[in-house]
Design goal:
The chain is mostly helical. The protein has one domain. Helices cover 21% and strands 0% of the residues.
């Protein structure tokens, strides 16, 4: 992202526009409605984010906040939102 702000969940790729990491890379501790990951807690390093993603996918990719799930949700499309360095 040009401004350096991260709005995409590093684990599942959800992007609702809420800033998760500021322009300095500092976590704002936002809980993802989709996978339930709190920015800065379980996604601070790439290996950790990948491990959490694997567990979430293995568990069926269920939404942490089911009411927030869009009717036309596409898992693979959302996963493509994950920043390349965090895939």
């Amino acid at each position: 992202m040009e401004s350096g702000l991260e709005t995409v969940c590093r684990v599942c790729g959800l992007d609702v526009g809420e800033v998760r990491f500021d322009e300095h890379g500092l976590a704002l501790f936002v809980i993802c409605e989709c996978c339930g990951t709190e920015s800065g807690v379980s996604d601070g390093i790439v290996a950790q984010a990948r491990r959490v993603r694997g567990h979430w996918l293995d568990a069926g990719s269920t939404w942490f906040e089911p009411k927030a799930r869009p009717a036309e949700w596409e898992l693979q499309q959302q996963l493509r939102n994950i920043p390349p360095g965090w895939r």
